[in-house]
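Let's sit down with a protein and look at its sequence and fold side by side. Once you have written the record down, we can walk along the chain together.
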Amino acid sequence: MLKGRIEQTYPIVVPTVIYTGFQKWNAKTNFGEKQYNSKLYGEYKINLGYNLIAIQNYSFEELLEKRSLFAIGMIIEKCRTKEELSEQIIQIIENIREEDKKELAQIIKNIVVPQIGKENSKKILEKIKEKEMVGMSPLTKMLLDWEKEKEEAKAISRKEGKVEGRKKGKIEAMLETAQKLLERKMNIDDIQEITGISKEKLENMQKGMVMKS
């Protein structure tokens, strides 16, 4: 044993399982209960339990009251339909803390919107506008700018498509539009929907831009 050794203490580590399914969790919550009995090594059995967090044990109201990004993730997992998810996102926006608005905007843009579709997304934006008639928050601005960017991209696509009278010209116009949208960091799936260019072609264009830079 080393002389002058200082005994150290460590923070408590709590093993946790976050269960997002809708069936009741029936597995043992202690590893010791899942191990074989052994006369020889029984005294070395790991007697370690884990904390179970199951979303079905919490109501939407209870999760909203927590006002945390972790609780928001649980709410999203708990929703079973697009309509239910849309309604819960509205509730989250009304109760979100100021310091979490930027992260919530990213969650809505990257996770929620692709799940609920365009129509439900528009409803969310309309309700945000109604709620914040005076003074636009960073969350609202980011979402509205993103929606405006998509509409402008569609307008560019329609305008350039009309100007080009021949098929070759239309293809070149779409490629040019796609290039501009890629430079703006727009989602490839949205660009594909706007221009009709294949996802593989868009990904190759994106790789070419990265190599040039």
Q: What stands out?
A: Helices lie at 60-66, 69-78, 82-95, 101-131, 138-163, 167-183, 188-195, 199-212. Residues 12-57 form one domain.
